[in-house]
Structure prediction request, 489 residues.
Amino acid sequence: MESVSGESLYLFRHALLREAAYELYPPSVRAKLHRLVVEIATFLFEDSQLSPLAAELADHARAAWQGTDDESLQRIEAGFCNRAASHARAMYQNSDAVSFLTRIADLPALTDAERVKPLADASYAAYLSGDIETTERLAKRADALRPTGIELAGLRNTQAAVCYLRSDIDEAIRLAEEARDGFRSTKDERGCARAMNILAVCYTQTGEYGLARSTYQEAAAIFREIGDRRGEGGCATNLALLLEQTGERDESERLYNQALEIDRECGDLRGEGIDLVNYGLLLTHSGRADEASAILEKALELCTQVGDRYFENLARLNLAVAYSRLNQEQTALQLLAQSVLDARDIGSLHNEAVSHSSAGPILIELGRLDEAQTELELALEQFQSTRNTRLQASTWLELAKLHGIRNDNPEADLALRNSIKLYAVHGDHATLAEVHGLLAELLMKDGRLTDAANEIETAVQLARKLADGGVLAGELQEVANDIKRAEQA
Prediction:
């Protein structure tokens, strides 16, 4: 016993003693005590003060109604669980949020209609934590209860996002379109813009860049109109990613910095981590691997902190690419090996494929050609499954380089032509010019000078379409002229 301000206060120094004393009370008395705790807390504290206590008060409410049919106490528990879930989400403890929300859905007093929202919210919280399997399981459970209106639209939006992560792009588009239409019918502008953002991401994946750009711009306009800064920042991030793929790197970097400014303004650690993951890769591709590695280390730290396993995996993968550019090949390969395991664990075929394709060039550089070919062919197979034609194109290009090192000209020729077909779909004139140049070089080795000159001419035409391609076009034209003179001689 201790004295506090002149009063006697009993403090149990050991949990077992506390439990033993608790068990001395009859169950009915214990239930009344738990109910009294809830009533006193709700009387003493303002609503804003209850959130940090919500998890504990939910336990008291449950202990008060268990063994009875008191529906009112079950609904009090549901209310505190909902508060606890919101508090957990605010602290980026999304796994805890999932537990509280599913606990609401399991309460006997709730009707099926009342279970839909907590299950849909739990599914979204699981998505935010990168737990794809739990997201799908909870979404399926909510779907079985036949949701309608805005709850159905929200559920479809989460399912669309998961299909995108699983690289089931056709299904992702179907679900996102259903979500968009559902949000429109319920006049939910924010939800509609969120669904459009997912659609634009899918269009980027399938190479429909013009449609993706216009969809992002429409979604961003909605977010700006309703004052949703986080939504606006998300659109800026995704548009930056698209512009990087179309070669507009300066504008892409400007948009990443704009998105990061919004993240920090809103205190959005998850958004900041995601944006740094993508920005770091842009810097790597721009030849700024030193800057990229520092940014990606920070991204990895943030994604781990907020519990987003998908983007933690992606941060590790992109960090490996940056280290490979800094000639730290063994570190890069270790990160990629871990990335493959993590991608399989969270069910992301896309991330696994990117890990394999990223390992290929490193292994080529180290002279481990058989291992490189295995990695690249596996990546190619997986990219074909995910319908990512751009990454198929870059993987074919790496395979062409590998076959060139082996002097296997027929296989190199085939790989380069496959790469050209796929890059042409995306209108990537800069890369196409490079690949046509490589094919010309290969044809010259085989003595096929006319064919080589034609490839160079094609590269010249592509270079002329670039904003700064005049000098390159001139140089390539000189090469073509040299080949024609050599052929005539």
